[in-house]
Design brief:
CATH topology: Thiol Ester Dehydrase, Chain A
Strand order of the largest sheet: 1-3-4-5-2
CATH class: Alpha Beta
Order of helices and strands: EHHHHEEEE
Radius of gyration: 15 Å
Length: 118
Amino acid sequence: MSLILQTEWIPTQEEFDVFAHVSGDDNPIHVDPEFSERTRFGKTVSHGMLIYSKLWALLQSAVPDARQTSQTMMFPNPCFVGDTVDLMIEELSAKTFALRAVRRTDGAEFLVGKAELA
């Protein structure tokens, strides 16, 4: 495996709100800080597909003509506003890439997956 790209992302509530508007997923766990304070998470949680969108954009910056044929994703931990997140793309083969989003402070993984390209 060779790491081809890594970047830092610090999610904001504004990003969660904009993604909710664009995607139509306005679940209060993503967009309502007061509601979220009363949940087991204690604050708003990123949409899983927002995390994936950040990783896909990172992959496209490295492989500009990328066209995805399949993907797998798991979201083992919640990603909160203000987390410092490392977004990482690793090349597994010529057309297969590992995608990871990891909280820098404790190594918790938010997204683990693969993308296969045409």
